Amino acid sequence: MTPALLALKPEAQLYAQYGPMRTVVNTTGSADAPREQADAFLFNLLGGKQVRESVINGADGHADLIIRCVEYIDPVTQKLRWAVDYWSIHRHMASDHSTLALAELSYEKAVRDEFAEPTLTLSLERFTRGLASFYDVTDVI
Q1: Which residue in 90, 110, 95, 79 sits closest to 38, CA to CA?
Q2: What is the pLDDT of residues 43-86, one digit of tens each?
Q3: Do 7 and 99 form a contact (C-beta atoms < 8 A)?
Q4: Nearest to 120, CA basis, from 66, 68, 46
Q5: pLDDT of residue 6
Q6: In this predicted model, what pLDDT tens digit does every residue of 10-54 receive, in sequence order?
Q7: Which residues, other chains included, contact 49 with Cβ-Cβ below 8 Å and sequence gap of 6+?
Q8: Please, are residues 70 and 45 in contact by the beta-carbon 8 Å criterion?
Q9: Residues near 95 by Cβ (< 8 Å), separated by ≥ 6?
Q10: φ, ψ for residue 119 (rounded to 5)?
């Protein structure tokens, strides 16, 4: 089944059929992968192929928040997986799945959730035109 066809199913049905995302890195809480493997996952995530990205830059021009959907190789199983890599000045979290459609669904949810309940202190101007003005870079419409 293609990612486009998977995306037509309700989110709950997708998770029931394919299972939930797996948290592999979490600087502020628990993860499904052992903590001693975090550096290996971070290395592979950073070297992975970026599929999608949303960014909020700070006043200094450097990124304060980056949410990416990444294709990468799991350092433990050596299998191809897709991850949502959420990095901000406050925390870093990455979750992955063996199905691209679920990773993309999770990526879009993370981007929209950040807009709905921002974790950064942002100016009111960021909220004037929805996601287009909230993020400096985004592909979520």
Answers
A1: 95
A2: 999 999 999 999 999 999 999 999 999 999 999 999 999 999 99
A3: no
A4: 66
A5: 52
A6: 778 888 888 999 999 999 999 999 989 999 999 999 999 999 999
A7: 70, 71, 72
A8: yes
A9: 21, 22, 23, 24, 83, 84, 106
A10: -95, -10
In single-letter form, the type of residue at position 37 comes to Q
Contacts of 68 (CB under 8 A, 6+ apart): 50, 51, 52, 53, 54, 84, 85, 107
Residues with Cβ within 8 Å of residue 100, at least 6 apart in sequence: 3, 51, 71, 82
Share of the chain above pLDDT 70, in %: 94
Report the C-alpha gap between 96 and 48 in whole angstroms. Answer: 12
CB 11 within 8 A of CB 105: yes
CB 32 within 8 A of CB 24: yes
What's the start-to-end Cα distance of the chain, in Å?
A: 24
Residue found by looking up tokens 């293609």 in the block: 2
**Whole-number pLDDT of residue 7:** 53
